[in-house]
Amino acid sequence: MFKHILVPLDGSTLAEAALPAAVSMARTFKAMVTLLHIIEQDAPVEVHRDRHLTEASQAMTYLEQVATRVFPADIKVNRHVHTSPVADVARSIVDHCSEEIQPDLIILCSHGNSGMHELVFGTIAQQVATASGTPVLIIKPDGNPDSFLLGHILVPLDNESIHDKALPTAQSLAKAYGAELNMLCVIPTLGTLSGEQAAVSSMLPATSTAYLEMAEDIAIEHFQGHLDQCKEMGITATAEIARGDPAPVIEKTAEKLGSDLIIFGTHGRAGLEAFWNRSVAASVARRTRTPILLLSLK
User: Fold this and answer.
1) Where does residue 278 rank: exposed (0-12), middle (13-18), buried (19+ CB within 10 A)?
2) What domains are defined for the chain?
3) Per-residue pLDDT tens for 228-238?
4) Helix 268-278 to helix 124-131 angle, to the nearest 10 degrees?
5) What is the pTM of this model?
């Protein structure tokens, strides 16, 4: 599944919160890992009270120390320092993903150095997923950074999930980790619709109600098919259809189930723009401590 994992590091303790997930994924899928440091132009002296790595030799020494300290000997770990200072760290990581390193999974902590700050909700994850289509695993440093175990995987799906390409990834992870796969579809109520849908529902409430009920029926049919497929694959799975405001429902469901990972799929460039600007997934990502795997489904 994942054979090459990229972990950008800036030298801070916060950024290192991504490392346990990298070890776990590499061990599970027998993948190699590349530790990447980008020399930032006009970088500050410190980042989150840790020294800022501004020299190539200093950065390489740091990556060597991380590789030795964190990763078991049976995991192949490459070290790469981009020595030419760059102003846009996010763009440089994207370029490395698409041109040089070409990983099939990027693991990021949600906060890094001044050049990588807010890298979940700013530019890095969006650019990586849009430009390269590489899956991005987002780790929260205030979650449980010392370990990465998957016992419950939550996959929010829409009612047309029969074509959702995020599901095979979720099934592969559940199979590899022996995790329970929890599928969730949240159908809005009239009161939780927004934008044009809310305007239409106010003018045609009966029609909108019928449409939402039809969406629930479709989800039930598709979810039964997913449950049957999971059973054939030997995966323990559940399916739940809820009504309400999707983001809070997903967040509360993850908390209720004790989810260790939430998987979201976005559909191409338009889907990613929606994700970052106004979507349910972005709202959940900002609020939850649960790691999130973002898939760009082009």
Assistant:
1) exposed
2) 4-139 (3.40.50.620), 152-290 (3.40.50.620)
3) 999 999 999 99
4) 170
5) 0.84
